[in-house]
Amino acid sequence: MEFQVRKATKNDMPSVLKLINELAVYEREPDAVEVTVADLERDGFGDKPLFNCFVAEAEDKIVGMALFYNRYSTWKGKTIHLEDLIVNEDYRGKGIGMQLYKKVMQFALEENIKRVEWVVLDWNTPAVNFYKNTGASVFSEWDTVQFDQDSIKKFLNP
């Protein structure tokens, strides 16, 4: 099967949102997605885009995507965070995920990014193994810490 990986366009955002929702179901959080197509279009394609995205296209449809954004490390300098890499279930095992992954890494190399980082659920063994097999380090001693919007409000206004 032939496919191509390319930079996403604003018109791709409905398909990107479908993939985001598919990932949420896979990660056992089917109702967690709040972002809309309008959010993705505004935030990814405005005057100051908040993210970059590559898509994989096969059979005239978007079947995978990698969405990432800039971060800064006080130790390393320029880094990027790979927020999501997802391939539609029907298209997995065909090398699409690897090509999206390589496209992000190539972008990082071209932009002199010092580190690419992301998180993976510890029970997602296929993903953990995929990343380890590519030479990525999977750290178990770091815990992810987050504040959702409601918690921020409660913290600031007890």
From TrEMBL:
N-acetyltransferase domain ranges (all copies): 3-157
Q: InterPro entries, from UniProt?
A: AcTrfase_GNAT_prd, Acyl_CoA_acyltransferase, Diverse_Substrate_AcTransf, GNAT_dom
Any Pfam family hit: Acetyltransf_1
Q: Which UniProt keywords apply?
A: Acyltransferase, Transferase
Any keyword Calcium? no
What PROSITE patterns would the database entry show?
GNAT
Q: Which CDD domains match?
A: NAT_SF
Highest taxon in the source lineage = Bacteria
Has the keyword Transferase been applied to this entry? yes
State what protein this is by name. N-acetyltransferase
For this protein's source organism, the top of the classification is: Bacteria, Pseudomonadati, Bacteroidota, Flavobacteriia, Flavobacteriales
